[in-house]
């Protein structure tokens, strides 16, 4: 498992080491990443659909997802609130109507669920057993991480400046530590070894990564649990960001996890103003690096 974890991490760092200047290539990478995400999620659904005893395990999976979502939510809110009290962030209210279209964003948040559902139904009703699907998903994930590394490296972001953004760094560390504490609290309920539980708690909203990495290490059922936990984080974040960001911006930005630098960023921008953007990008960027590293390390301990 150690070799597998290192193989998962290597493409991310390799991509981050390469510098590209062509805007056309970066545009092609953007669309390739989007296509790969849905391809990987469909393969995750396929693995679930072809899992033995799927129907009998759905109830247990639902209870595990609910426990993960609730305990992580409470722990993250407490951790981020404590950071907010220690390092409060003052905001100016944004002027004008710059609404990103919450209905559109919410529907976009449901697309990953549709991709997994399509794969699940195809695997359960239509397709024969495909033992190579797991290996294909792993290689697709490695390509995805390489391309994401390229995107991060060539997004015009200075790693030094991101690490020096005290609010962004504090939010990322608060979310990470509170998530790991939640993982410790969940160990008796989930019935997994401590390192596997901490790996489950380290997705930080990156559902396309956590679903495949956890599924490859612990089986398709746990991969489905990891995916649902992280995609629900994204959907809940869309709902709570406008409610919290005016008074407690660290809590609003932080709960979005790794998505704060991309998917939930328009909501953060419209609700909190321009001052929130560098903080959200910094925290989301750091969590996007920490998530695969922590999952790889924890799973390698098994």
UniProtKB/TrEMBL annotation:
Domain of life of the native organism: Bacteria
Keywords assigned by UniProt, alphabetized: Membrane, Transmembrane, Transmembrane helix
One Gene Ontology CC term in the entry: plasma membrane
A Pfam family the protein falls into: Lys_export
Molecular function terms, GO-annotated: L-lysine efflux transmembrane transporter activity
Ranges annotated as spanning the membrane: 6-22, 29-49, 61-84, 105-127, 139-157, 169-192, 204-228, 235-257, 277-301
PANTHER family: LYSINE EXPORTER LYSO
This protein's name: DUF340 domain-containing protein
Protein's organism: Marinobacter guineae
